Amino acid sequence: HMQVGAELIRLWNLPESLGECVEFHHEPAQAKNFPIETAYVHLAHALAVMAELHSVDKRDGSRIDPICWEITGLTEEVIEDAIDKAYIEISNIEKLLFPESEET
Length: 104
Description:
Layout: H1 2-11, H2 16-23, H3 35-52, H4 66-72, H5 78-97
Helix pairs in contact: 1-2, 2-3, 3-4, 3-5
């Protein structure tokens, strides 16, 4: 899916940075022109998987390539806070999209 996504981005004349992020989001060390952006997408993907599993344990999701911590300057301590904030934002969006399902 990485190669197909990257090729579609090229065909649609979307930014090269987006194409590289898509193409290498599972292999961030392979990104040559946009390594920081690709590292962030790699981390976001891993955090999304953990959030979907309702876990903050990095062993429960996609393996996080250690190079991403180095490239971004982030540490593993951001995992729990990022997932907690994502749950809050998802809840806020659900309230906007589905106001009738709120408890009264």
